[in-house]
Amino acid sequence: STNESRWIHHDVGVNTALTRVTHGQGLFVVVGNDYNANRGMIFTSADGVEWTERVAGTVPLLYGAAYGDGRFVVATRDGGVVTSTDGSNWSYRPGTVAGALLLPGLIWADGKFVAVGYWKQRPVVSATSTNGLDWALHEGPWTAGLYGLAHGKGRFVATGANGVILFSTDAAHW
User: Fold this and answer.
1) What's the predicted TM-score (pTM) here?
2) Which of 120, 119, 123, 113 is nearest to 149 (CA)?
3) Is 137 helix (H, G, I), strand (E, B) or coil?
4) 133/105 Cα distance (integer angstroms)
């Protein structure tokens, strides 16, 4: 929308579930999943109107997306990441975030990427990375899935299953 009240539909040309959007370097990046083909998809646009598919093939399903410090980071279903420094060329790194199943909550804040999600019943609450490639896991008492993540006023706030709301000032201690 150009006026925040009238929205215009723009089709990317494929039947897919688009799940996350981020912005950086003058580009919108949208990620989604073609569940029929069991693959993730990434689209980019400079104007939000015309879209180009950037990743095709065997990239796993995609769930979280963020931009920070010159890098786009997209979380995959297998705990990996797909990254790009220009929005056009993407690299898949499987199993980068050890033990993760899904990372729907992924943001850049306070000089780091922070992810929350599902960790195969491990008591991991979050994962952090300063470069989007190397991740540290932070354990806590919560084993159910976390879905949302935001940062403001010096705090990270995560939301999840069973009505949980967690907060942290460093994304490591919740």
Assistant:
1) 0.90
2) 113
3) strand
4) 16
